[in-house]
Amino acid sequence: MSGIRIDKELEQYRNLMEVPSTFQDGFSWTSLVGAIFVAVLMVPGAMYMNLLAGQGVGPAAQWVTVILFIEVARRAHKHLSKPEIFVLFYMAGAAMQQPFSGLLYNQFFAQSQAATGMGVSVPYFYAPSDPDVLAQRSFFNPAWYPAVGLVIFQTLMSQINTMILSYGLFRLASDIEKLPFPMAPVGAQGITALAEQQTEESRREEDTQGGGSWRWRVFSIGGVLGLAFGAVYMALPAISTALLDEPITIIPIPFTELTQKTSDFLPAYATGINLNMGQLVFGMVMPFYAMLGSFLSLILMAIANPILYKAGYLPSWSSTDDTILTTFHNYIDFYFSFGLGLALAIATAGIFQVIRGVRARKRAVARAREAGQLDQLEQLDSSVPPGRGDIKFPIILAAYAGTTLAYIGLSTWLIVGLEGGWTPNVNRVLGVMLFFGFLYTPLLSYVTARLEGMAGQVVQIPFVREASFILSGYQGVAIWFLPVPIADYGQKTVFYRQAELTGTSFWSIWKTELMLVPIVILSSILFANFIWSLADIPGPQYPYAERMWELNAATQCIMYTATLGRHSQFHEAFRWEYIAAGTGVGLGLFAVMGLLHLPIMLMFGLVKGLNQATLPHVILPQFIGACIGRFYFEKRMGLKWRQYVPVVAAGFACGMGLVTVLGIGVNFLAKSVIKIPF
């Protein structure tokens, strides 16, 4: 598209795969059995891993399920097509959703020091506040029914919108705008690997031609690495917890703490390193310039924080603070507002790219009109591949309108109940819901869909939800816990592009969703309740939750206190001058890098890194992985490395997840046996 500078690195991703000429229905009973397999065996492991190390099973459950079912099919002399593998892969991943795992955090938040200390009283539909109810550690208690019902409602509405509205945005961005979606082939490469591996004859042919059978070998290498590392990093702590009061951790979880040791020469800067090998692999997969931008932001932060501390902008920090306290104090003193400004700059840059793309298209249409080729251009843009399984736009609009009205109706009913009638607070909530449902969410989703299609990036406009609540004049904290129709459905458009690249009919995806929802809801609440019944959460058995949840709660409460109608920590953290500085710095960096024609990924990586959205501990291993991939493997293999590395990452996730789930299974079995009274 003219008018848009083509990024060479994005072009490498963009050309990895082509759309096939035919589409097939990938849904089968095999997919349903795979989803049940994941829901029963993988979901509890994923919940446990999140509490233990702050990460789930991730794609591992999908790869384990797909490989297992491929092997079973082979022994039955059956061949799974690429669409069937894609749907099985998607169904296994979707079955990993854990909507009720959030209730584990809710029960902690309701009784946390941050909430009680800042005067944040949670409403009954978020979590019960009665200590006697919370001490029972069971969601099958009438006091929990409103919270459980709200989770079910949000799960249903979210699934409908994610599937239907995201599909409509994909139609706009891919079929009409013809955007390339450069990052979509990364997710489709592993599916291609497994499909090619099934047939021995085709594997031999591709070996002689230098073709696709390399994928299975590369996948296996990644799997062995994941098995070896996962046994030490995740399985050992999980198994040892069944025998000891605290887990044995050879590699520290979630990170190695160094902040207090470096406080003399790096004051007010959180230092440490995450030794999870998965971060190294992640750095190899991601675009190099995005990782370089994050690393440059790490260096800038190491220079800026000591200067800010000595200048008096970070007064709360103390040399005895660890990573958690350093991050929280810096967040209150400076980065809450400065980060908002940076996020505004990122959103502005993303929207600017979208506007520039729209203008470029208009110029292309004008040139086509002058050349007498406009009819041909419009016919090309509006065409839909036959057999893909598309639906009409009126159905998309009706589905979104229905779910949005359901959100608005439920939120209004909840507030009316809390207020004891129709008060001014109800009008304020209603206005906010209408704004989000019918203006902000559709606009943001469209902008993100176009930016994903052009550069593989996501628009994140900060503080919109929070600012809307505060500026509405609402008094109290209940508004923060309402089901709000705000989401970014543009991110899911990449999934539809992956389905298209694998030749999967969209109807098979929608049939899959209908079968999945009851499975997800049932497995999630049963296993969340089971894990909570084993021990208090957080506790010594869950080092990540014990270390990080209080920080998360304190950060949330800062914002919640803004609508209490009194002076709070929010008023201390919110500084217009810091927001302006963050916006200026972000836009200035984008302008300078744009003038220098630096890569798009470098620009976004640098500005996002300065926003401190991620702990600096993970940036170094990610950058090391990016350098290894860029300067060693890519130098030796050329552009083929960009095809290899997603498959390596998929194999690593599979191996690590498999051994971790095995360790967690031993843990659950041991604790269940111990609980038997005879």
Give a short overview.
With 678 residues, the protein is mostly helical. The protein has 27 helices and 2 strands.
What does this structure look like?
The protein is mainly α and 678 residues long. The chain has 27 helices and two strands. The chain has one domain. The chain has helices at 8-14, 29-41, 43-53, 60-75, 82-94, 102-110, 113-117, 131-135, 145-176, 184-197, 200-208, 214-241, 277-285, 288-310, 323-370, 374-382, 393-419, 424-455, 464-471, 493-501, 506-534, 543-560, 569-573, 576-595, 600-610, 619-637, 640-675; strands at 256-257, 272-273. It has a two-stranded antiparallel sheet. Helix 9 (145-176) packs across helix 20 (493-501). The protein is globular, with a radius of gyration of 25 Å. The termini are far apart. The model is unreliable at 1-6, 205-212, 376-382 and 674-678 (pLDDT under 50).
Please provide the ordered H/E string of secondary-structure elements. Answer: HHHHHHHHHHHHEEHHHHHHHHHHHHHHH
* Structural class based on helices, strands and sheet pairing: mainly alpha
Low-confidence stretches: 1-6, 205-212, 376-382, 674-678
Gyration radius, to the nearest Å? Answer: 25 Å
Integer count of domains: 1
Determine the strand fraction and express it as a percent band. Answer: under 5%
Strand order of the largest sheet: 1-2
Q: State the separation between the terminal residues, measured CA to CA.
A: 72 Å
* Biggest beta-sheet profile: 2 strands, antiparallel
User: Count the strands?
Assistant: 2
Spell out the key features of this protein.
two-stranded antiparallel sheet; mainly alpha; 27 helices; 678 residues; 69% helix
